[in-house]
Amino acid sequence: LITIGINEKEQAMMTMLATITSPSSTLKSTTTGYLKLHHKFSVSVSQFRHRRRRIHQTLVFAAASNTSNLVEEFDPEIPVERALTPPSSWYTDYQFHRCELDRVFYGGWQVVGYSDQIKANRDFFTGRLGEVEFVVCRDDEGKIRAFHNVCSHHASILASGSGRKSCFFCPYHGWTYSLNGSLVKATRMTGIENFALNEMGLKPLRVAVWGPFVLLKVTQDKSKKEEDIESDGSVVASEWLGSSVGRLSEGGVDSTFSFICRREYTIDCNWKVFCDNYLDGGYHVPYAHKGLMSGLDLETYSTTLFERVSIQECGGGGSKAGEEEDGFDRLGSQALYAFVYPNFMINRYGPWMDTNLVIPLGPRKCKVVFDYFLDPSLKDDEAFIRRSLEESKRVQMEDVVLCENVQRGLESPAYDKGRYALVEKPMHHFHSYDKSLQQLQGFLSGLVAEEKLEKLEFRDG
C-alpha cells in the first residue's frame, strides 16, 4: 500500500530528498541535483505534497475498510449455543487495537485506582490508559480532581508515581500548576504576545469515586462545565455498573476494607485474552488450578448477567466451607467474581477483596494490576496475609502461562475462530455487549461509503 499512486518520477524525487539529509552529500551538489531533477520532471513541491496526501487517504481508507470487516465478523445476535468466537484478528490486528482504545476505553468510565491513594489533601497518583497520561489528586480544599498529566508548554509529563504535592512543577521548563489545574507560573514568557495565563492550565478529566474505587472518563461530556468535573459517585455507579449495583453492594464490594498491597504483571497477550480466561465460567479451573480447585465446589457454580456486568459465584469446596485441614481459610464459604465491562474484575471471597485491572499495552501485550483489600479485623495478621498472597500469586502465574499460550495460538495460521461451551456464557456476554464496537462498525461503514477521509489522522503505521 505504501507505493499506491506513486509514479517513477516521484519515487526518484523521494530518493533525492532522502539524499539531501545524508551526511555524506555536500549541500552544493545535492541542491544542484535536486533542482535539475525538479526541472526535468516539472513536479512542484505542492504537487508532491498533494500526491502524498492522496496516499495518506488511501491508507486510511484501507485501514477503515479492514477494521469494519473485522467488526462484522462477529454477530452478537447469535446465541452462545450456535455462536462462533470472534476471529483471531481481534486479538492481533493493530488497527483493531487502535479503534478499541478510541471507542471502548476512552468513551466510558474506567477504574484507575482506589480512594486511599488520595485520602488526604494534596495526595496524588498517576497512570496511563492507552495513550492518555493522567494524574488524580485531592486539592487544598479536599476536592478530587483529574487532569491529563501533560504540561501545556511543550508536552512534558509533569508528575510520576504517587505521593503528596503542593503543586505540579514541570521538570522541563519550570512551568508550575496549582492542584486545581490552573497555571500559576510560566517561566521566561515575558514579551510573548497574546499569552493568557488563565488559558494554559491543565486539561481536565471527569473523575468519580464509588466505594473504594476511583474512576475516570477520558471523553468529556460537552454539557459538563469544568467546575462539575468531579461527578457524583452514585450517579456514576448507576452508569458504570447498571442494575448490578445492588447485587455488588449485597456482596460487600463497597464495604470498608484495609488496603494491603498492589502487584502488577506484564503479560504477552492481548488484554481480551486475560478477560476471556476470567470469563470462562470456571471451565479451566480443574485443569489449570489444582490448588484453587480444592477450595471451590464447582457444582455450585452459577452466573448472572447484567447490562455491563457478569457475576460468577461459587461455594467453598473444602472441609467446613473451604477451610483447609490446618485451619487456613482464604476463600470462605462463598466466592463472588464480578466482571465490569470492559476490563475490570472484582473478586470477593472470605475476608478478602482483590481487583484486577487489565490495561492494554498493544495488540499483543497488557498489564494486569492487582489491588488487595482485607477486612480491617485481619489487617495485622501477617501470617494469614503472607500465605493468602502466596496462594493468589501461584494462581496468577498459572494464568499467565495459560494466557500467553493462547496468544501464541491466536497468532498461528492454524486458528481463526472457535466455539463456546455453555459454561462460557460470561465470555459470550463480554464479546456480545460491545455497543461501542457496534457504533464503530456504523462509523467505519459510513466512512468507507462516503470517503470522509480529509479530517482523519493516520498514526503509528
Automatic annotation (TrEMBL):
Locations listed in the record? Plastid, Chloroplast stroma
Q: Which CDD domains match?
A: RHO_alpha_C_CMO-like
Pathway as given in its UniProt record? Amine and polyamine biosynthesis; betaine biosynthesis via choline pathway; betaine aldehyde from choline (monooxygenase route): step 1/1
The family database entries (InterPro entries) matched by this protein are listed as:
Rieske_2Fe-2S, Rieske_2Fe-2S_sf, Ring_hydroxy_dOase_asu_C_dom, Rng_hydr_dOase-A
Q: Does the keyword Oxidoreductase apply?
A: yes
Q: Required co-factor?
A: [2Fe-2S] cluster; Fe cation
Q: EC number(s) on record?
A: 1.14.15.7
Q: Where in the numbering of this chain does the Rieske domain appear?
A: 109-216
**What domain of life is recorded for the organism?**
Eukaryota
Q: Which PROSITE patterns match?
A: RIESKE
Q: What is the enzyme's class at the highest EC level? A: oxidoreductase
Q: What is its main location?
A: plastid
User: What UniProt keywords apply to this chain's record, in alphabetical order?
Assistant: 2Fe-2S, Iron, Iron-sulfur, Metal-binding, Oxidoreductase, Transit peptide
Q: Which reaction does it catalyse?
A: choline + 2 reduced [2Fe-2S]-[ferredoxin] + O2 + 2 H(+) = betaine aldehyde hydrate + 2 oxidized [2Fe-2S]-[ferredoxin] + H2O
Hey, which family's this protein in? Belongs to the choline monooxygenase family.
Q: What does this protein do?
A: Catalyzes the first step of the osmoprotectant glycine betaine synthesis.
Q: What is this protein called?
A: Choline monooxygenase, chloroplastic
Identify the species of origin. Answer: Brassica napus
